[in-house]
Specification:
Elements: E1 15-19, E2 22-26, H1 29-36, E3 52-54, E4 57-59, H2 62-69
Antiparallel strand pairs: 1-2, 3-4
The structure holds zinc ion (2 copies).
The site of one zinc ion has 8 residues, from loops.
């Protein structure tokens, strides 16, 4: 069985993602992002790029990190 960990879809071409020692199976990158991507500490969007870390919080961009610090 290859069931998506996010939506439960049973998909033949599912793939696995290992993060912090836990392995998840997903049917799409969209589901992987929904479950695993951190949220920006300022605007709340999913951080799917490199992002920026400031004071232990992840932000989607420098602008958000600066807005949160201000
Ligand atoms: Zn899914
Ligand atoms: Zn942001």
């Amino acid at each position: 069985m290859t069931q998506c960990a996010q939506c439960g879809n049973d998909y033949a071409h599912a793939f696995e993602v290992t993060m912090a020692g836990a392995t998840y199976t997903f049917d799409s990158f969209e589901c992987a992002i929904q479950k695993l991507a951190p949220e920006c500490g300022h605007c709340g969007c999913k951080v799917i790029g490199h992002g920026t870390d400031a004071a232990g919080t992840t932000y989607c961009c420098d602008h958000c990190a600066q807005q949160a610090a201000a």
